[in-house]
Design a protein that fits this description.
By secondary structure, the protein is mainly alpha-helical. The chain contains seven helices and no strands. The model has no long low-confidence stretch (mean pLDDT 83).
Length: 216
C-alpha cells in the first residue's frame, strides 16, 4: 500500500512539474493510471487480510482484478508512446499496430463472461488465455526499450527493460498458482517494487532533464 502511494505521489509531481515536457507528463499519467487501477485490487485485499479473510471479499477482489487487468494493459500502451517520444521514433506503423492489436485482444478477452471474475472458482484456463496477449505485449515493450537504450547509450533508461522483465516474472506465477497456493500471492509485493523502480527511472530522468536544461 505504501509503495503504491509513494509511486502515485511521485508521478503526480511529475505531471505537475514536467513543464510541458510530453515525455514526462505522459510517463506520469501512465503510472497514475496503473497505481489507481491497482488500488481497486489492493484495498479490498488489505481489508480482507485485516478482517474476515479473502473468502468474504470474493466479489470486491474479482472486480478489482478486472479493473487492474485493464489499467495494466493501458499502462503498457502509454509506455510504448513514452518509448516513441524518448527515442524520437517515426513511422514503425507495424509495431504500433501490433501494440494496439495485442492490447485490444487482451481487453476483449478480459470482457468475456467465461472469466467469471466475481466467482470463487474462476477458471485458470481463462486466466491463461487473457494473459497470453498481455505477455506478448510486455515482451514487445521489453525488446523495444532494450534495443533503443543500448543503441542510444541511454544510461538513464538502461534498466527500463529489466523492470518490466521482473514485473512479469513475479506476476506470472501469481496468475498460474495463487488460487491453489495463496502464499504465492505475496509475489505481488516484489512486482509492485519493480513498478516503483520503473517510476523512479522516469522521475530521475525528469530531474536530470530539469537540472541540465535538456529537452526531450
Amino acid at each position: 500500500m505504501r509503495a503504491k502511494a509513494v509511486r502515485i505521489g511521485i508521478l503526480i509531481r511529475m505531471i505537475v512539474t514536467c513543464k510541458g515536457n510530453r515525455q514526462y507528463r505522459l510517463f506520469g499519467i501512465m503510472a497514475v493510471v496503473l497505481g489507481a487501477g491497482d488500488a481497486f485490487h489492493l484495498v479490498p485485499r488489505a481489508l480482507a487480510l485485516c478482517t474476515t479473510g479473502l473468502e468474504n471479499y470474493t466479489v470486491a477482489l474479482g472486480a478489482g482484478k478486472f479493473i487492474t487487468s485493464i489499467t495494466m494493459t493501458i499502462f503498457y500502451v502509454i509506455l510504448y508512446y513514452v518509448w516513441r517520444i524518448r527515442y524520437e521514433v517515426k513511422g514503425r506503423n507495424a509495431v504500433t499496430a501490433a501494440v494496439y492489436a495485442l492490447a485490444a485482444l487482451r481487453i476483449l478477452l478480459c470482457l468475456f463472461p467465461q472469466n467469471r471474475w466475481l466467482s470463487e472458482d474462476a477458471p485458470l484456463s481463462w486466466g491463461i488465455y487473457r494473459n497470453i496477449p498481455f505477455a506478448l505485449l510486455g515482451l514487445l515493450i521489453i525488446v523495444l526499450f532494450y534495443r533503443s537504450a543500448k543503441e542510444h547509450q541511454d544510461r538513464e533508461f538502461r534498466h527500463m527493460w529489466l523492470t518490466i522483465v521482473l514485473s512479469f516474472g513475479f506476476y506470472i506465477p501469481v496468475v498460474l498458482w495463487a488460487d491453489a497456493i495463496p502464499a504465492i500471492g505475496m509475489l505481488m509485493i516484489p512486482k509492485t517494487c519493480a513498478y516503483v523502480w520503473t517510476v523512479l527511472i522516469g522521475y530521475r530522468a525528469m530531474v536530470h532533464c530539469e537540472n541540465t536544461g535538456a529537452g526531450a
